[in-house]
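Our consortium's second objective concerns turning raw sequence data into structural hypotheses that experimental partners can test. To show how far this objective has progressed, the report includes one record in full. It was chosen at random from the queue rather than selected for favorable results. The single chain below, 263 residues long, was entered without modification.
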Amino acid sequence: MPTIHYVEYDAAHTANFVYSIPEGLEAWLLVLTQTPAQFEVNGELKEYPAHSAVLYPPGHNIYYRACAKKYVNDWVRFDADESYITESVVPIAKPFSLPDPGYCHQLFQLLTLENSFQNDYRELSIDYLFRILFNKLSEATQDKLTPQYYNLLELRKTLYSNPGHPWTVSSMAEYLHISAGYLQTIYKSTFGISCMEDVIHCRIRLAKEKLGYGQHKIAEIAALCGYANVEHFCRQFRQLTGFSPRAYREKLNSREPQGREGE
């Protein structure tokens, strides 16, 4: 399992910050930037944007520096011989853009917290977090990010947290200050689903949750999920689940465990 020597998130540095170790470290180093920075790659100093990640193996030359008034990053120095790290597709000593920097930042926060614990499951929890983090880093190297990617991601997070909002293609396009046609094109190419299909799936997931846990009437659930028309809600629910909302609730209720004998 990975052994952390030191981990830190939201590490802030001044404009003259430089990190230079020509002979490299005896451990692995993973850096996630929150601000632009300059990295030496193949002997050449290049500027990379915020939300970049770079992985250095033991013994590899390390050089990066601030290139703005402030430099902020998350970083971890660690030992590891697990194949998901040593044989990862993540580039070595070459920064690449993160598709979901907020998620990776949260993983660093959890790594920092878990590393501070002294309990029986500490090492196992750290291993799980590293596995998730390297899964995300591996995904990032396979994705080509469009200029609008981070804005699309914020839109999708907003959509998922509030599916009952009266979303339309036009309102989502306005949210990003782009045309409706362009939104539909880049949303589908980025997430593999159209923006309105994503809205519908998100609403039906919420409806299933409300039907299974709670005493809301079907008309109330329809309204909570953003449907002004109950019939429209029932029709879309049946299309995606194969059940009417009422039948779906009855099916869930029939699976509830019976009371113990004698109760």
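The partners drew two points from this record. The chain has ten helices and nine strands. Residues 122-142 form the longest helix (21 residues). Both points have been shared with the crystallography group to help prioritize constructs.
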